[in-house]
Amino acid sequence: MSGMLLSSMRTPDTDEPVVEEKPGDEPEDLTGRALRLRIRQQELLAELGVLALQRTSFTDLLNQTARMTAEGLEAEFCKIMEYIPSDKRLLVRAGVGWGEDVVGNATVGADLDSPAGYALQTGKPVISNHLENEERFRTPELLVQHGIRRAMNVILQGDGLPFGVLEVDSRSEGEFGEHDIAFLQGAANVLGMAIEQQQYQRKLQAALDRHQILLKEVNHRVKNSLQVVSSMLNLQANTVGDPALSERLMEASTRILAVGRAYNRLAYNADYENIDLVGYLREIVEDLEAAVAPCNIQLDTPKEIQFAADRAILVALIVNELILNAAKHAYAGSQEGVIHLRLVSSDDKAVSISVSDDGIGLPADFDPALSKRLGTRIALGLAGQLGAELTRQKTTKGTHFTLVVPLHAKAN
Q1: Within this chain, do residues 279 and 398 fall inside the same structural domain, yes or no?
Q2: Is residue 271 very low, low, confident or very high in pLDDT (cuts 50, 70, 90)?
Q3: Which residue, of 44, 213, 246, 298, is most buried by count of CB atoms within 10 Å of its CB?
Q4: Mean pLDDT: which of 96-100, 250-254, 285-289 is highest?
């Protein structure tokens, strides 16, 4: 850079812009047209702030900022440049007035000899009103090619590090002044806050993505471990030589598989906090078909019910117990029969799940709360954890249990 930086240039400890000094400069008389322009500039800054708050897409926000900035300064050209550290240059990311080959392709130097580079490196606004006579900086070839006669540059801050530079350019005669640089800096400040928010959100999303990957891997490993435990119980059930103990081991195996099914769905589900309860219970039923044979399980369900994954596991365990109990006690002597599983989402607050059969039924005085059956006690205990209500419905034939589960857990 030339050694002819003038005394009016801002020092690192001041807020004055780097501007050419001209003898006899007088403050602009803000009357008439000039006053209307200042009012319009304030309106444009307000509009830009609204766009930033509306979460406008990043590309649209860049383009709108360039358009509004050019309008507010009555300039033919404006561009937003992003600093590329690896190239040590500024890339034109958005702009108005430029040809299609400029935006996304053209670059300017980011060194101190460049007006934009100086603004980036020092944080000082730069005004160049007579580029044809500019001795402080090297005029970028891009400006020369487009016949630019005057320009202003201000830094665009990002999240911790500068994002780049906001520059306005004009072919017309005239001069940019202090009020113009204040408007340009205001536009840069609004855009800078939006850029900082965008960068912060990208970092947050990247951290969330890493967390989800790790969580899915954990779920996958838990599922595999539960399958190993279930297989070991099955093997032991087939070799223990005691029918009663074998039956207990098989029941334990199906309970473990019910939990493993949930972790299996979580491992491949985009939403790691929720799963489709209907799809999950269908898989539970598939696992139970061999255990309840020769009985058949018939499902009557809606297409989908989104449900919290940790609560869905408890629901599946309850359904598992009710179906196993129905197959074991409803049809004596290994008779064929049908077990009905029905899900109804009555409103946005609860889902009703019923398990019924057409078997011999339970004694008239049967009370689930007083039952000594392990499956019934497990089902009641899990219902309590869910804040759900498990009831036995009166029926002339068979047995009918209904579980009404709140869709969302009650806040403690």
Answers
A1: yes
A2: low
A3: 44
A4: 96-100
End-to-end CA distance of the chain: 67
Closest CA to 127 of 76, 80, 181, 79: 181
287 and 175 both lie in a single domain: no
Do residues 179 and 313 share a domain?
Answer: no
* Pair 196, 280 in one domain: no
Q: Are 374 and 324 in contact (CB under 8 A)?
A: no
Residue-wise DSSP of 176-232? --HHHHHHHHHHHHHHHHHHHHHHHHHHHHHHHHHHHHHHHHHHHHHHHHHHHHHHH
Clarify whether residues 178 and 324 are in a common domain: no
Residue 174, Ramachandran bin (φ over 0: left; ψ between -120 and 50: alpha; else beta) = left
Asked which of 136, 166, 201 is the last residue of a domain, the reply is 201
Nearest C-alpha neighbor of 61 from the set 107, 105, 98, 94? 94
| 46/49 Cα distance (integer angstroms) | 5
d(CA 262, CA 275): 8
Angle at 84 between CA 78 and CA 89, to 5 degrees: 65
pLDDT-above-90 percentage for the chain: 26
Give pLDDT, residue 17. Answer: 60
Sign of the alpha-carbon dihedral angle for 216, 222, 224, 227: negative
pLDDT band (50, 70, 90) for residue 228: confident
